[in-house]
Amino acid sequence: MKKIGYWLYQPYKFLIFIPLFLVFSLLFSILAASFSILINPRVGSFWGASWAKFTGYITPMFVTVKGRENIDKNQSYVIVANHQSGYDIFLLYGWIGIDFRWIMKKELRKAPAIGYASYKVGHIFLDRSSPRAAMESINEAKQKLINGTSVVIFPEGTRSGSNKMSSFKKGAFKIAFELDLPILPVTLVNTHKIYNKGFNLLPGSVEMHIHKPINTSEYHDRQDELRELTRETIASPLTHKKVEVLTPVG
Hints:
Elements: H1 2-38, H2 41-58, E1 61-66, E2 78-81, H3 87-95, E3 100-105, H4 114-121, E4 124-126, H5 131-144, E5 150-153, H6 171-179, E6 183-189, H7 191-194, E7 195-196, E8 200-201, E9 204-210, H8 223-240
Parallel strand pairs: 1-9, 2-5, 2-6, 3-4, 3-5
Antiparallel strand pairs: 6-9, 7-8
Helix pairs in contact: 1-2, 1-4, 2-3
C-alpha cells in the first residue's frame, strides 16, 4: 500500500506541489523583504511563517503541537531542536508561534530571493572565517534577540534522516552562553517521513514538542551537563515512540 500511495502522489508532487512551491516561495520572499523594509523585520517574519504554513498545507503536512504553554512570548530564547529533514524549517517557522531568527552560513546570503529576504527579515549570517568575524556575528545576534525574538539552532549539525539523534555539538551551547539566554528544547517528530534525501516527498503527520526552558545561568561551570540535559529532554518523546536514540560522544 505504501508503494501505491507513493506512486499516486508523484503526479501531484511534480504537477501541482513544485510549481506552487516555487511561485509562492518567490512571492513570500518579496513580501517578507518588502514589509521588513517598509515596516519592521517582525512583520516581514510573519510572511516567512506564512510561507512555511502554506508549504505545509500544500504538501499536506498534518501538525500536532504540544507544550506551547511553556513559552513566554516576552522572553527571548535559544531554541535547540533535533534535525531530521528540511521540513524542520517549515514545522518550526509555521507552527511554533513565536518570532525567531535562524543562524545561517554566510554563503546562504547569496541564495536567490530567499537569501535577500532572510537578510532583510534579520536572520543571522554566521561568519566562521576567523574568530573576530565569528564574534562580530554573535554581537550582531545580541542586538536582534531582544523582547521575545529568539534564535533557532540545530546542535546535531546535520540532518539525521530519521527519528534517531546524533550527538550534540558544543557550538550551540557556547552561543547560548554568549547570548546569555535560556534554552528552549524542542523535539521534532517524523519530519523525515515527509521529506528525505533525493526529494522523496510524501504527505504525513508530524509532531512538535515544546519543553520547559532551561536557565543557562545555572550551568556556566557545567556546560557538558547542560548539553546532556538538553539532549535527554529533546530525546524523551522519541524514546517514548520506541525508536533508537544514539549515545552522545565527546
